[in-house]
Amino acid sequence: MLNEALVLAFFVIGIQLMVPIVMAALGEAVAEKSGVLNVGIEGMMLIGAFATAYMGITRNSAGLGILAAILAGCVFGALLAFLYVNRGTDQIVTGLMFNIFAVGLTGTLHSLYLAGQNGETLRGITIPGIGSIPWIGEILNKQNLMLYLAIAMAFGVWYLLNKTWYGLYARAAGERPLAAESGGLNVLRLRYPAVIVGSVLAALGGSALVLATSGGFVPGMTAGRGFIALGVVVLAKWRPLWIMIYALGFGLTQGLQFLAAQVPTLQSVPKQFWVALPYLITVIAVVFAPGSTYPAAVGIPYRRAGA
Amino acid sequence: MTVETVAAADKMETPVWVRTLLSLAGTLAAMSVLVWVLGANPLEVVEAIVIGALGNPFNIGQTVVITGILILTALAAAIPFSARLWNVGGEGQMTVGAVAAAVLGIVLPGTWSPWLLVPVVMMGSMAAGALYGAVPGWLKARFDASEIVTSLMLNFVAASLAAWVIFEVYPEGFVQRTEAIHVNAELPRPIEGSLVDIGIIIAVATAVIAWFVMRHTRLGFSIRAIGANNPASRLSGIRTERVTVQTFLMAGAFAGLAGSLIVQGRDHSLLQDFSANLGFLGIGVALVARLHPLWIIASATFFAVLRVGSNSLQAGAGLSPVVGEIVIATFVILLMVTKVIKFRYPESVDA
Q1: Residue A252: closest CA among A23, A41, A19
Q2: Does A103 touch chain B (CB under 8 A)?
Q3: Which neighbouring-strand residues pair with B177?
Q4: Which helix (H) or strand (E) holds B175?
Q5: Taking the CB of residue A220, how many other CB atoms lie within 10 A of it?
Q6: The whole model's pTM is what?
Q7: With CB atoms counted within 10 Å of each terminal CB, which end of chain B scores lower, N or C?
Q8: What DSSP designation does A40 have?
Q9: ipTM score for this prediction
Q10: H helix intervals, A41-164
Q11: Tens of pLDDT, residues A44-72
């Protein structure tokens, strides 16, 4: 039967699983708003996850793990930005290839250095006041730093896109690059930081995944979360608050498989169904995303006049 | 789409074959550095790969079998990519094909003659893959749902389906595989003592058929027209929605056939982790071949050598077999950087 402890555990897991999707989706939203479709976030999450697990295992430090993920996000984000923006390679194909690259890179490094090891995880943070509220407090007390970082990121991304000159210009580069350029903006220079920031957020999403589970790395552990994030961005119409809400929905759906394993009435359904459910729901959600259209210039490499 | 070779502006630039060789050299250089940084000797790695793939008849057999599978998964990417439809669901379509082959190979009467059973099971795989592939195509045509997201998500759904069939429906004791399919459903192995089955012939024939369809049929023309300019082809009377679904049906059938080759040809049952990413690698194989069905045969051979050869790296150089993934991704990206692989876009979104 459903008891209170079980329901609480379900929400604890659901929120933990929400965090990586929120981060990746926020990163994707920033890149897309500037006109770059970054399909490579799945691979970026894998790389961030590996970086965090590596530092957690070899240096016993979750903090260094987070820093390593940020650094990796910067380095590989700059590489992607160079390809997408400078070289104008096809964004979809480049992103797909980057994902395959990341599978190869993290898989190779994992088998050499980290196979089968667990590392550092983050402890829950108790917020005075909130922590003592029944139910909500019990759920939040089990959440680590990454949840609060994700919430801060959502506000940060909202502020960046809507309240700063950079956000305004970047959105212009994503909607009407030629007009933006005529108005004196440098489209290429505007897209660069968007891709890098987006990559760092995705890498931190991978980091959150590691820090919430065993602290270790498992090849392919992102399991399509980057692509779920792509769907979440469309569903949420690029609005950070809605990204959090939809990501929570997906986190809870992923949490269902743990709930189903404990509840006798749900055990008659094959457990593989619960594993497949979040992906099925993503398909349905993308199909029925009402009236959601990408920024006009997404996916099209920008070429300066005469170049 | 059109991966175009040389646009007018590039006429004075370096020829394509030079840029292709440069990209290959760049890939090898990058890999050498990586392998060296990881503490192995690049030359020894190359040697291990070549011996691992071609060193004895057994390994050559493995390489030929993988080549056939890669040809088909590459076609499953190449045909839709030619219409700028991003089918990244080849892995799932292949999985569903493999599941169909295993189920049919177990439930159909084993007393049927191979002349009947082999093609029936194979067509079942193709039909399953085609229908599964049609889903993202139809969702794209009907609801304009992003086929990248939907086709990729369906890979995970297919993996769950396969796990269910392996562990719950037809489990084989404590081994992570289903029961074996009937002997009469297995693809014949014409060469005595070799793993090579007739799958490679089927795959090469399929590539030729795909080339013919793309070059000489109305459907192929429509696919290429949509890739070159979707709005214009719609205006000129091509029913783009219908072609989209047909394209995905065809791609899914190719991927499903790859699943049949794995089950009926290579494994004779459905194994957990049977795919080892071959569906995904097909995307890279197709791109290196610049989406040309006949070049895919060469490209698939190259990457099959790499894949089978790198299986021996674990023992030889201490490296994981997935280094092949790094090679294929680096190569494709360099081919794009050097503009050997080029895509055409609508003129401007500002107009």
Answers
A1: A19
A2: yes
A3: B271
A4: strand B175-178
A5: 13
A6: 0.91
A7: C
A8: T
A9: 0.89
A10: 41-58, 62-81, 91-109, 136-141, 145-163
A11: 999 999 999 999 888 888 889 999 999 99
